[in-house]
Amino acid sequence: MHMHKLEKIWLIFGLAALIVFLSTIGVSAFYLGNKPPSCLTTVDPEKVDQTAPFNKPGLHKVEGKDWDYELVFVAQAFAYTPTQVTVPLGAKVKVIATTKDVVHGLEVAGTNINMMLEPGYVSEYTTTFDKEGEYLIVCNEYCGTGHHLMSSKIEVKK
Ligand code: CUA
């Protein structure tokens, strides 16, 4: 079978691109452990207050895990619990959050924490706070008339 030279080049290019893309996904999923956010952990939205860790919102020191602290947030129209929290500088923190009613957002301005909180699901993100300062937490999913009032604050200090 005769194949034009350009056709061969494109075939090789296509195959190479496919291999690169599949390898990237493979490394990301199986070596780095990336997976779709949060959809794996669920919580009964009517029993959030009684369910650990949401029965104790706030910052908790943990032992024997890959992170130093767990920062638990509960969102509801139109507030977060806790309304303010202090995190030690340099701490590796796993943010764990859910909502008691409708969909809310949890964006920590100035960081790459930006999660959607869906009723029945637990959203998690692990990060290190290595810059001192005050970080505003805002809701970036329209959730009702008080949406623009919904905020909290993380203070990072030594
Ligand atoms: Cu909560 Cu918008």
Q: If you compute it from the alpha carbons, what radius of gyration comes out, rounded to the nearest whole angstrom?
A: 21 Å
Overall structural domain count: 2
Overall strand count:
10
- Quote the average pLDDT: 92
Write the CATH fold name of the largest domain. Answer: Immunoglobulin-like
N-C termini distance = 71 Å
List the uncertain runs.
none
Strand portion: 35-45%
Tell me which ligands are bound: dinuclear copper ion
Number of helical stretches of at least 4 residues: 1
Reported for the largest beta sheet, the result is: 5 strands, mixed
- What is the helix content? 10-25%
Classified by CATH, the class of the largest domain is Mainly Beta
Descriptive report:
This protein is an alpha+beta fold. It has 2 domains: 5-34; 45-157, Sandwich (Immunoglobulin-like). It contains 1 helix and 10 strands. The protein has one helix spanning 5-31, and strands at residues 58-61, 69-76, 79-81, 84-88, 92-99, 104-108, 114-117, 123-128, 133-138, 151-157. Strands 1, 2, 3, 5 and 8 form a 5-stranded mixed sheet that branches. The chain has a 5-stranded mixed sheet with strand order 4-10-9-6-7, with no helix packed on it. Bound molecules: dinuclear copper ion.
